[in-house]
Design goal:
This protein is of the alpha+beta class and 274 residues long. Helix content is 16%, strand content 39%. It has two domains: 114 residues, Immunoglobulins (Immunoglobulin-like); 96 residues, Immunoglobulins (Immunoglobulin-like, Sandwich), CATH 2.60.40. A hairpin with a 2-residue loop joins strand 6 and strand 7. InterPro entries: Ig-like_dom, Ig-like_dom_sf, Ig-like_fold, Ig_sub, Ig_sub2, JAM-C.
């Protein structure tokens, strides 16, 4: 009777797709989605929960853009992880220094010929965080009170895409100026995703040193400080207009002198009539 119950249980497990661990190889991992910082070590876990075969075949494959390539094959590290990784018991892969090119899916495969369930695999997604580089910043040198202007900040190396913060005279600008008594009268708006700092109406107090900081989970970087002057009147525009008027005057005077030297203004028949 007890044997009949055991057989019945086995048939029930088999019909449900559950095979007892003693009859097959079963894998698991501690994390199916793994994040790592660039140039730091990371271990991808492939834990063998059950197996009967003494020397199973273990393979690791890297799948990038849908194309698989070997990482561990015939008992040695292969591919672009050669000399940068090693297999650790039972079937884990340790990468010594991850790079951005290591971002991909990794598949651990274990084949056990002596087990009833002779094969199992597990898929792990690895994403490598990349610290931002120094962002490119644009700060206008001079603006006029009451006008609108935009300061820009851009960084395209970091992963995940960084968020941006702006600093004025070494003090961080709050994203919403209305929440700060010091900046409540300011008319700026910050887009932390694009790095844009826009002023609807520039004030005298907005003059000073500006720099931007790009940051993600891997770190941050900032551009050098740049000065923005704020004038009551458009001094630069007045200077350019005055310079343009003087330039036109000198060009006209030079043209008249040149024409006089060529005798363009003399009366051709004056001497003959006289």
């Amino acid at each position: 009777m007890a044997f009949a119950r055991l057989v019945a249980c086995f048939v029930l497990y088999s019909s449900l797709g559950h095979i007892p661990s003693s009859l097959g190889v079963i894998l698991r991992t501690t994390d199916k989605i793994v994040w790592a910082n660039e140039f730091e070590p990371i271990e991808l876990t492939c834990l063998i929960e059950s197996i009967s075969t003494n020397n199973p075949r273990i393979e690791w494959k890297k799948i990038k853009n849908g194309v698989p390539s070997y990482v561990y094959f015939q008992n040695k590290i292969a591919g672009d992880l050669e000399h940068r990784a090693q297999l650790r018991e039972p079937a884990n892969i340790l990468i010594f220094n991850t790079t951005r090119s290591d971002t991909a899916e990794y598949r651990c495969e274990v084949a056990a010929i002596d087990d009833q369930r002779d094969f199992d695999e597990i898929l792990i997604s690895l994403a490598v965080r990349v610290k931002p580089v120094v962002p490119r910043c644009y700060v206008p040198e001079a603006v006029t009170v009451g006008t609108s202007t935009e300061l820009r900040c851009l960084e395209n190396e970091g992963f995940p895409a960084p968020h941006y913060r702006w600093f004025h005279n070494n003090e961080e600008l709050p994203q919403d100026p209305k929440n700060s008594p010091k900046f409540v009268n300011s008319s700026y708006s910050i887009n932390p995703d694009t790095g844009s700092l826009k002023f609807r109406r520039v004030r005298k107090d907005d003059a000073g040193e500006y720099y931007c900081q790009a940051m993600n989970d891997a770190g941050h970087a900032q551009c050098p400080e740049q000065t923005m002057e704020v004038y009551d009147i458009d001094i630069l525009g007045i200077f350019l207009k005055s310079f343009g008027a003087l330039l036109v005057f000198f060009c006209l005077a030079a043209s008249i002198c040149h024409s006089c030297k060529r005798g363009c203004f003399s009366k051709k028949g004056h001497n003959e009539n006289k």
